[in-house]
Specification:
This protein has about 250 residues and is an alpha+beta fold. It has one domain: Creatine Amidinohydrolase (Alpha-Beta Complex). Helix content is about 25%, strand content about 25%. α1 packs antiparallel against α2 and α3 runs antiparallel to α4. The relative contact order is 0.19.
Length: about 250
């Protein structure tokens, strides 16, 4: 499957989709606190997305029943929000969301702490986030796709963390998931050459322990097999000749 190179018009639409999504995630961080249900976070997130005139990318995607994936502690991704799941002090919470703006998707994820989290959990969150920035150093024209993968893997493994292999990043545009797939673990080949105008959802998913995961009976929620904590950090990134532009990160 060919990788699409976006026109200037498409890039501007994706830039706006990313700005809206980054703003939504910044606001949702304030809701990640003890006593709040994961369902409430989803409800607030969906209302915000729609208030910007956007459609939640995830709602109904492959049958997913919510607009925000809310994954707590050992849940890596695709956690289904629930009124019964109440955040506790010390939980770490990954929020993964997507928006559609005028037909174009943006996809991003953050991991936040609820209340006081352990130093070990805080380090996992920060290393996972930083591994994204190590990877995107190679998201520029002339580099190769798996240079991104190898940089992400090498940074996380320095800390002894397990980089999840069953789930990968992806291209993005008029579809939520487009070519190419972007692994976060080390590859033996260089992968395809990158060109200006490609848009990629780069998303390290990292476990404090073993990298292996399993899917729960709801057919969505993916958890670490050893129940170790997991963190997730993602942005929609534009490849340019000068280097990466992060479309879904809005500085507060």
């Amino acid at each position: 499957m060919a990788v699409s190179v976006k026109s200037q018009r498409e890039i501007e639409l994706m830039r706006e989709a990313g700005r809206i999504l980054g703003t939504v995630l910044n606001e949702l961080e304030k809701e990640v606190k003890p006593g709040v249900s994961t369902w409430k976070i989803n409800q607030i997130g969906e209302e915000m997305i729609r208030s910007y005139g956007c459609i939640p990318s995830f709602l109904g995607y492959g049958g997913f029943p919510a607009s925000i994936c809310v994954s707590v502690n050992e849940k890596v991704v695709h956690g289904i929000p629930s009124k019964k799941e109440i955040l506790k002090d010390g939980d770490i919470v990954s929020l993964d969301a997507g928006v559609i703006y005028k037909g174009y998707h943006s996809d991003a994820a953050r991991t936040y702490g609820a209340g006081e989290i352990s130093p070990e959990a805080a380090k996992l969150i920060e290393v996972t986030r930083q591994s994204f920035f190590e990877g995107i150093k190679f998201a520029k024209e002339g580099c190769h796709l798996y240079e991104i993968s190898n940089a992400i893997a090498d940074y996380n493994e320095k800390f002894g963390y397990g980089v999840v292999r069953d789930l990968v990043g992806h291209g993005i545009g008029t579809e939520l998931h487009e070519a190419p797939e972007i692994p976060n673990f080390r590859q033996s080949r260089r992968g395809m050459k990158l060109y200006e105008g490609m848009t990629l959802a780069i998303e390290p998913m990292v476990a404090m322990g073993d990298y292996r995961v399993e899917t729960l009976d709801d057919d969505w929620t993916t958890v670490t097999i050893d129940k170790s904590l997991s963190a997730h950090y993602e942005n929609t990134v534009l490849v340019t000749k000068e280097g990466p532009q992060i479309l879904s990160l809005v500085e507060e």
